[in-house]
Design brief:
The protein has 18 helices and 17 strands. The protein is an alpha/beta fold. A seven-stranded mixed beta sheet has the order 4-10-9-8-7-5-6, sandwiched between helices. It is globular and about 75 Å long. Bound molecules: pyridoxal-5'-phosphate. Belongs to the SHMT family. Its cofactor is pyridoxal 5'-phosphate.
């Protein structure tokens, strides 16, 4: 079997028509729909080209200059470029910060931080998942330790205030004094306000804990300088690169290095976390780096320093604010009363519509979002809100006036849902049945879906034309 063999040089469209059709179907779905899942984005052609390049073929365990395999002269240059550009994108000095660009994604990056800085069963505190935290911040429930971050470490969550929807820092401080965590995580997956990193730092210092920032959702906004940066106060900062940052599906860890402080006796204390983090990524947790993804990180980080990127991120926030005020104008309740970032958390409790029904009806009309718990929800299994994000639509060129139209589409869909619920009663299965089988409802859905698709197709998508 060699290159002359057909199978090695045929395009997927020729060699595998069945799969090719699925690739085209997905592209068409992305083109026709309104993508409002807050963690998603459309990456650039340059990133996609890196991802399908020959770099994919190379094994390069270890770090640049210290590899376990030969033939890495070029790969070393690629990884060093990705490191340098990652530091530049966040305005970090290489004397004070180092970076590991090898984590396969955000979850492995976080586990590498814990593996490097903690002993098994050391204590961590993160924002609870139903309150807007991430699984990897120690999530467990009364029945089960769900995330490995709660299986191998002891986790205690902090929460948002039920009334305001804002992080309850006082309670975190109080519980941290009792729990004495070794590491506190400042990071969110569903929270529409900026974080008080200074306060997190004080609480960490009071307990001798590391402070880790997980900026997975907001790393694009941070790079563009449109929201406060975690770097001033954190010891470690992890991120994904495929959300607001708009790069490849991958993860990055930044860590402090150099002088930490001067102790009582006037001696300088140095940070000692560089090798802990690097060794945790490889060899503790991972094998060969994904060099195609690392190249894509390099080019995404270069994009992140441009004026166009800054304008994009400003527009992301402006669009989220517009979405908020449009929905508020239509009678919807927004958790925390607004947004500083790229997402909006809508509570549907006053409409007596569950998040699951809202997510379902929106999907029926090609608007993608996800159901989400809101403060005060009794059960995390039956959340009464939806999370909406603007990064992907903004990449397609949406401006505030387009978002006004999007809010109107959402309102139309949710109004149909309320009508359907009157016929179906509260159960989700009955509701779905009515939506699909009732002629009046299903024809309204079909009409709205067509309007949404016609609207969405006016906006370009980056990447390859067909797939
Ligand atoms: C998305 C996310 C992650 C995990 O990233 P994956 O690439 O999905 O593994 C970690 N932390 C936060 C805060 C996130 O939002």
């Amino acid at each position: 079997m060699g290159v002359s063999d057909n199978i090695m040089q045929k395009a997927v469209s020729d060699s595998d028509p069945e799969l090719w059709q699925l690739l085209k179907d997905e592209k068409s779905r992305q083109r026709k729909g309104l993508e409002m899942i807050a963690s998603e984005n459309f990456t650039s052609l340059a990133v996609l080209q890196c991802l399908s390049s020959c770099l994919h073929n190379k094994y390069s365990e270890g770090l640049p200059g210290r590899r376990y395999y030969g033939g890495n002269e070029v790969i070393d240059k690629v990884e060093i470029l990705a490191q340098q550009r990652s530091l530049e994108a966040y305005g970090l000095s290489p004397e004070e910060w180092g970076v590991n660009v090898q984590p396969y994604s955000g979850s492995p990056a976080n586990f590498a931080v814990y593996t490097g800085l903690l002993q098994p069963h050391d204590r961590i505190m993160g924002l609870d998942l139903p309150d807007g935290g991430h699984l990897t911040h120690g999530f467990m429930n009364a029945q089960k330790k769900i995330s490995a971050s709660s299986i191998f470490f002891e986790s205690m969550p902090y929460k948002v205030d039920q009334q305001t929807g804002l992080i309850d820092y006082d309670k975190l401080a109080e519980n941290a004094r009792l729990f004495k965590p070794k590491l506190i995580i400042a990071g969110i997956s569903c929270y529409s306000r900026t974080l008080d990193y200074k306060r997190f730092r004080q609480i960490a210092d009071e307990n001798g804990a590391y402070l880790m920032g997980d900026m997975a959702h907001i790393s694009g906004l941070v790079a563009a300088g449109v929201i406060p940066s975690p770097f001033e106060y954190c010891d470690v900062v992890s991120t994904t690169t495929h959300k607001t940052l708009r790069g490849p599906r991958a993860g990055v860890i930044f860590f402090r290095k150099g002088q930490k402080s001067i102790d009582k006796n006037g001696k300088t204390v140095m940070y000692d976390i560089e090798s802990k983090i690097n060794d945790a990524v490889f060899p503790s947790l991972q094998g060969g780096p994904h060099n195609h993804a690392i190249a894509a990180i390099a080019t995404a980080m270069k994009q992140a320093t441009t004026p166009a990127f800054r304008e994009y991120q400003q527009q992301v926030v402006a669009n989220a604010r517009q979405l908020c005020s449009s929905l508020q104008g239509l009678g919807y309740e927004i958790v925390t009363g607004g947004t500083d970032v790229h997402m909006v958390l809508v509570s549907l409790a006053n409409f007596k519509l569950s998040g699951a029904k809202a997510e379902f009806i929106l999907e029926e009309v090609e608007i993608a979002c996800n159901k989400n718990t809101v403060p005060g929800d009794k059960s995390p299994m039956n959340p009464s809100g939806i999370r909406l994000g603007t990064p992907a639509l903004t990449t397609r060129g949406f401006k505030e006036n387009d978002i006004v139209q999007v809010a109107a589409f959402i309102h139309s869909a949710l109004s149909i849902a309320i009508e359907a619920q009157k016929l179906s009663g509260p159960k989700l299965v009955d509701f779905k049945e009515v939506v699909h089988k009732n002629d009046v409802i299903s024809s309204k859905i079909a009409q709205l879906k067509e309007e949404v698709e016609n609207f969405a197709q006016n906006f370009p998508l980056p990447g390859y034309e067909e797939y």
